[in-house]
């Protein structure tokens, strides 16, 4: 039996046991995990260093190496994260509906775990701890499939988690890692319908596209963020500039950073050059449409492809659009339904934009960078869903739950 | 451009217009549809008769022909159904969360339409009206893909719907039918990710399995119901028999009817023969395990395949299981996560069963036939979801909605 199949079966069995765990049992296990990874940090750092060395040999970029790298501080941060999850309210067992029927039947809809969650992710080993903590808190079993570039780190972290679980009432099968990082093991997870209840990819566009295309297991799409800001005719110059710079620069590599700015021609005529200069001063590469490129030679001419591009870095596409309607059309065509903003003093335009732009989060006069589970006060974030089923936008613990109807009778039959 | 692509694009454009529809506008359009199909009934029946004649030539069974057949009464029933939907509370625009942040940002999570719903279904032309009404009420555009066996009926119904919409403020692109019933058009819908937000198959296991396997569009799985009743040692004889007969016989062709009875050996010894005889008196074919088959020769010996089979007719599999734990294991292995019941006077056994059986609806001392959107009081039913994401169990209007975060600021940026 393959590693994936074997671990899938074990996870399914574990998930049945886990439906009976009390909040206290889960929190105790979480606290033990937080403690154990700090206790094991020398070993974890040693194994992490193997990944770093291998990564250097393979010529990984410094940015990627930084994502893989663990330090004492980062391990403490992971442990703190787990302890935060302990404090969150346990959603499992919540009663969502009560229906009393005339025939005496009592129906109750309760929140239950999803069952087995599959997680496929890249580079960052902290996702291993993060995903383990959130799935455990929600009574799910999890199968983790990290990338080869963090393999030693992930194996070390899982062994630490297992040491912790052995002291708890949670089976070690509740949290498992696929150690074989061959492409085939990812593909096996895509179609493990008998044992996986959901598959959550966390990573770049290629990973997510592949999962959506190939998986027969239900998927939650996360993360692709080709986000826009539309600066309307009536936008305040300082507010627009401040928001654009924040949404582009405060953390360019994340999904809620903006990739395209759409500008009303009247606003552009009055304030456009200043904005373009400010962006260039911050070393942002500008891909402009014809008007922008002509007016501002220190820019590149955008291709059709650029409007679709999530740069995740110091680049931005800029286009002049004639109206709020044109902005909406552009965003609904090129966007990824993540976070979209309008800067305007015209409430009618704002309302039209918020209603008609098809995205998880729509903003009026604020930075798109707020789309985040912690910023929204959920105390956790499994990812940011860009699909419309099950969960949309920042996913807290609820996204890792399902529901179940409990019906109690005294012999009732249907007439 | 293919029919599917063309209608997909038109549906997407329609869906953007539909987010702005008021409840009144939607209800007016629904009332017009109800009126129009009754006004057009002569034409609809004429076209339906073509399907019936073609079906007879193709040698369709009487059961299938009955599902296709329309009558004045059935058309009136469809119109009544649409009028019922008019009366349901409109979920769109409901505020689900309000978050005020210290920095003055105001976040509101509201219920919004899904966008474009694809529906692939078999035989029954009433699904055309049903799906049109429910998607319109929830502000979604819909693309319907019925089967070739009801093609004339569906085209007639859609033309009637369009005549109604022309008198309303809803575009006719909101409700479209794929007229080409070639297998290829279904396949095209499976991967129409740019224009479809969800695909809901309604039909037999083969259709649903194909959609799950081949679709890249998000799918809601409905309907497969390999449901069980476990008769525990302490079950009352009369209650157990009454519930088993009801769950098997009241309407054998539907998904919440039972397909397998699991019986505790002690109960079987005392009451088993009587139950088997009662089932045979109602012409139910019995597929028993070794014990049953030996004790009751008027039965067939069940094969491994039989435990997986959804008969949807007058057949039932019966097995002796030693304990509630064994019953749970059997159900979690062979079931389809739909509706599962335990008959017992032992509350501890009931609690164990309800918690550990993995299904949308779990019953203690009641018939599985109650799993139904109307029985649960939702006033509508799009189908019964057997998956755990998005919607589980009977799906009312909420299952056809998503959510969206509306964020209003005064220039806030992230620090």
Automatic annotation (TrEMBL), chains A, B:
Signal peptide extent = none
Superkingdom of this entry's organism? Bacteria
Q: Which reaction does it catalyse?
A: L-glutamate 5-semialdehyde + phosphate + NADP(+) = L-glutamyl 5-phosphate + NADPH + H(+)
Identify the pathway: Amino-acid biosynthesis; L-proline biosynthesis; L-glutamate 5-semialdehyde from L-glutamate: step 2/2
* GO molecular function ontology, one term from the record: glutamate-5-semialdehyde dehydrogenase activity
Q: Which InterPro entries match?
A: Ald_DH/histidinol_DH, Ald_DH_C, Ald_DH_N, Aldehyde_DH_dom, G-glutamylP_reductase_CS, Glu-5-SA_DH, GPR_dom
Aldehyde dehydrogenase domain ranges (all copies): 9-282
Per the UniProt entry, the Enzyme Commission number(s) are 1.2.1.41
Q: Which ranges form a coiled coil?
A: none
GO annotation (BP), single: L-proline biosynthetic process
Localization annotation: Cytoplasm
The UniProt keyword set, sorted, is: Amino-acid biosynthesis, Cytoplasm, NADP, Oxidoreductase, Proline biosynthesis
State whether keyword Cell cycle applies.
no
Please name the SUPFAM superfamilies in this protein's record.
ALDH-like (SSF53720)
Record's GO cellular component, any one? Answer: cytoplasm
Role:
Catalyzes the NADPH-dependent reduction of L-glutamate 5-phosphate into L-glutamate 5-semialdehyde and phosphate. The product spontaneously undergoes cyclization to form 1-pyrroline-5-carboxylate.
Which PANTHER family did the record assign? DELTA-1-PYRROLINE-5-CARBOXYLATE SYNTHASE, GLUTAMATE SEMIALDEHYDE DEHYDROGENASE
The family line of this record is: Belongs to the gamma-glutamyl phosphate reductase family.
The name this protein goes by in its record: Gamma-glutamyl phosphate reductase
The protein's organism comes out as Oceanobacillus zhaokaii
């Amino acid at each position: 039996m393959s590693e994936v199949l074997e671990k899938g079966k074990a996870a399914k069995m574990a998930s049945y046991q886990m439906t009976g765990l009390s909040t206290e049992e889960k929190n105790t296990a979480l606290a033990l995990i937080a403690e154990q990874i700090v206790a094991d940090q020398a070993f974890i750092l040693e194994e992490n260093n193997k990944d770093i060395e291998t990564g250097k040999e393979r010529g990984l970029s410094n940015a990627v190496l930084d994502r893989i790298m663990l330090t004492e501080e980062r391990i403490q941060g992971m442990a703190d994260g787990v302890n935060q999850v302990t404090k969150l309210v346990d959603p499992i067992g919540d009663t969502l509906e009560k229906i009393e029927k005339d025939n005496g039947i009592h129906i109750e809809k309760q929140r239950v775990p999803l069952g087995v969650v599959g997680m496929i992710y890249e580079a960052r080993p902290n996702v291993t701890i993060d995903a383990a903590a959130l799935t455990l808190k929600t009574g799910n079993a999890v199968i983790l499939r990290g990338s080869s570039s963090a393999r030693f780190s992930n194996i070390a972290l899982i062994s630490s988690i297992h040491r912790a679980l052995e002291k708890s009432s949670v089976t070690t099968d509740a949290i498992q890692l696929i150690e074989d990082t061959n492409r085939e093991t990812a593909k096996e997870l895509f179609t493990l319908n008998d044992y996986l209840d959901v598959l959550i990819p966390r990573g770049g566009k290629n990973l997510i596209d592949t999962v959506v295309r190939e998986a027969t297991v239900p998927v939650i799409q996360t993360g692709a963020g080709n986000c826009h800001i539309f600066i309307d005719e009536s936008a305040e110059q300082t507010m627009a500039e401040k928001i654009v710079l924040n949404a582009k620069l405060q953390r360019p590599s994340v999904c809620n950073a903006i990739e395209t700015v759409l500008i009303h021609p009247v606003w552009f005529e009055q304030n456009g050059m200043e904005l373009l200069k400010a962006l260039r001063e911050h070393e942002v590469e500008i891909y402009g449409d014809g008007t922008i490129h002509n007016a501002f030679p220190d820019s590149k001419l955008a291709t059709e492809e650029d409007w679709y591009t999530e740069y995740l870095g110091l680049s931005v596409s800029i286009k002049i659009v004639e109206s709020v309607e044109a902005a909406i059309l552009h965003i609904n065509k090129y966007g990824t339904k993540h976070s979209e903003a309008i800067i305007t003093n015209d409430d009618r335009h704002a309302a039209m934009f918020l209603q008609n732009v098809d995205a998880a989060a729509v903003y009026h006069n604020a930075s798109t960078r707020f789309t985040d589970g912690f910023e929204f006060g959920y105390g956790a974030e499994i990812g940011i869903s860009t699909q419309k089923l099950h969960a949309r936008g920042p996913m807290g613990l609820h996204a890792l739950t399902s529901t179940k109807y409990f019906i109690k009778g005294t012999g009732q039959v249907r007439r």
